[in-house]
Amino acid sequence: MSPLRRIAIFLLFTVALASALAQAGVIGGGRPGGGLSIGITLPSGPTTLREGVIGLPERPLPLFASTGADRAIVALTYRGLTRLDTSGYPTADLATSWSVSEEGLAWTFVLDPAARWEDGTQVTAADAQLTLGLAGELRLDGGYWEALTVEVSEPTGDLVIRAPRALANLPALLGTLPLLPAHLFSGSAARDIPQLEAAATPMGSGPFKVVAMDGGAAALQVRGDLLAGDLAARSLMREGATGLPVESVALRFFGTEEEGLNAWRAEELDSLVGLAREATQVALADAGRTIELGSTTFNGIAVNLRPRTVLRHPKLRLGLRALLDPSAITSAYGGREVAAPVSPLSWGWSEVPLPVRGAEYAKKQFEGAKWKFKDGVWVDAEKKPVSLEILTLPSGPYPEDTAVATQAASAWIAFGVPTIVTEVDAQTLTSRLATGDFDLVVLNVDVGIDPDLYPLLGSAAVLSGGNVVGIQLKELDALLNEARKPAERDARVKALAAVQRWCAANNYLLPIRFKAEELLVASRLTGLAPLLVREPETHLRDVLSFRLAAP
After folding, report:
1. Most CB atoms within 10 A, among 75, 128, 236, 427?
2. CA gap 405, 231 in Å, rounded
């Protein structure tokens, strides 16, 4: 994944309010002034999950899904070589096992011989070969897949993936890449696939199949054939779980948040995903609860550490951090406060103490860096008054970023460090970061489902633009590289823990939070837990573990 992909600044989407969607069932038209009508019969009953999604279907196909509706359908009907547990760690799915060569460059995946596509065709390594080739052609994940060589081993039929360097995150990323059937799409260019007749209706290897679909809803039924013979799928049917397993899904799509909220208030849904936090809080006034869907997006303030910049002394960064109040951001926008850029929901997270807070502690740090408080402001060791600038994107489309910058600036100004917040467009921001023309900048960084901090802090990433901090240290590079080696889980957890301790101690990034979204859940739906996802709609990958209260 390229540094530019990882240092993505995420847009907080807002949508206009509109009227309610018609009730589930056979509906001939929308309500007066209403949203999309449903022209299909949706399943109902005690074993039917009624899921609502904000967003309309466009291309419900792996590699091409672009809306919440697309991703929900794909999560229910398609599978990858691996699947991710709630912490983002890869486990067996279409591949029953895998191994990596001693040098870490060649991965071999053994596919489940019992896995079948919905039409009965066996899932083979050729399906994975096609999918990974198309992912490379489309340059998904910043061109990550393009760099791989994929082949089918003879005579075993195993899949062999060769990489230009050791990739510890490969099994996890494969859990975010559902496979396409080669017998339907082989020989087609990536750009042509969405227009093919075979792409019109999902035909996957997942636990559910689409029995009816239109622009407003989809009806799905569990695949009995898959549950009878597929060990990976059956393992999700948790033994001893209370309640009824999900046997069908009534999936409804809403063009606006208000349409979804109206259906929720009418008790037509068991869960609703895709709401902005404000709308979720409104909905909680009605009966319901939320399940945290943790994202891979780290939100913090990056410090410029290039020569002759203001904050190169570590005590200064520690003092500034002591004055921040991340809880003000998490209360308003959600997420979890962190000490380092690894999500608390991730398998790679280690408990690193949060920093000491307070003005007295900050004063001690500033004085330790030879700053002095004079005439209401701080002056540096050369007796020059200190001032700072925080860069952020415009507050209109990016209110969360502006809130982070404003909260920090207010705290530092009150302490005697004049600080201005400068809103710039994306082009200007990119230019100033590339040239090192900044003091601090609000960042949203995708650290990946398998946390990899080298593109953020590694020496080589300075030249490619990912390491905006500008730090280049051999000792840190060694830790970052150790954490990216393909190794046993315990070894990688240990290596990542060392990286997190280093980050917390040195404060190249002033952590605020890991972003999170919330799934709105009715009381009859159980079996859900906080989980780490790349996209909120992909929580449906775990639908076989959900339970519905008996009537």
Report:
1. 128
2. 49
